[in-house]
# Entry
Amino acid sequence: MVKKVIWSQRALEDRKAILAYWIDRNKSNSYSKKLNLLFKEAIQLIAAFPKIGKHTDEENVRIKIVRDCFIIYEETDREIYILTIWNSYQDPARLSWEF
# Structure
């Protein structure tokens, strides 16, 4: 059963910031378009196969790696909550998530 996906505000903002960073860095949106497509494909996989992500210390929270980014999500009986998208180049001490 494919679960409903719910994005946190933070995850939406994180995705937007990551894509904007690559547009600015490359002076082109082609890489950002490809990366956004990879995010969408990963989310579809997560919705269909929630256990696909790597375990974390938090119960029901998993991580799916997409290039240099981590999609951090929480699985419930009926839904997948996208908590954040984390660029692995960022300071790991700043990584936290709440829904």
Q: What stands out?
A: The CA atoms of residues 22 and 28 lie 8 Å apart.
